[in-house]
Target: Methyltransferase type 11
Amino acid sequence: MDALKAVPSSRLAVVWSVVTGELARPMDCDTVEGPCRVVDVGGGTGGFAVPLAQAGYEVTVVDPSPNALAGLTRRAADAGVAERVTAVQGDTDALTGLVEPGSVRLVLCHSVLEMVDSPQLSMDAIASVLAPGGAASILGANRVGAVLSRALIGNLSAAMALLNDPDGRVGERDTLCRRFDPEELVTLVASGGLTVEQRHGVQVLADMTPGGRDTEPGAAQALREFEAATAALAPYRDIATHIHVLARKPVG
Ligand SMILES: C[S@@+](CC[C@H](N)C(=O)[O-])C[C@H]1O[C@@H](n2cnc3c(N)ncnc32)[C@H](O)[C@@H]1O
Model:
């Protein structure tokens, strides 16, 4: 594949690093018949799909939103990679009817499990479409990070609501259906028969410090370095805004 030319938001640097590291593993492609296939379920307007297509991968985005898919198509055309990006309208839990089971080398499912009807059915579908040896990149909202970020700005009523709600929501007006505790997300990902190989915190402190807002010279760079140093390190990774898990479907 070509050198990687574009990177999504720097806040997702650790996820990009894990995903591109996974796609660079030559042995995994050998287990999949045909070209390396990447499916980005709930991929929206292509924040990951388009940079991956620019890097040379064929990417199918499955998303129920016609508006998001229209944005994706425009973005892919603007980037000159329309021929490597396929837009399919549909839901995560219907994935097996949209993508051939056992055929996919990498499934991305980023910031989607917190809004689907059934995270379990979605994970089962993701596991079904993966080829043996293929991997899933799952990014989920972390309840712990959400509680701490609200508490640190003094919004203790929202922090307490999140802490006590069974689904980790802040009332009925919350746009998310749920947030996950870190171990809960890891258990969910493994429940479909996948083996969890890596877990990271994404934005360990980025939402809790002024560093990301460039309040002093070098602060943003210092924050990036801090994030890189703590992303894989417990307990820091477990207070991040999001939890990222890479899990693999066993061969045989
Ligand atoms: C927060 S956006 C995330 C977009 C992209 N994955 C990213 O990380 O930038 C959530 C996306 O999930 C899609 N979505 C909502 N419900 C879904 C479902 N049941 N199955 C698949 N995608 C869904 C939305 O249309 C939206 O594009």
In short: Residues 64 and 91 are 6 Å apart (CA to CA). The chain has two domains: 10-142+180-248, 143-177.
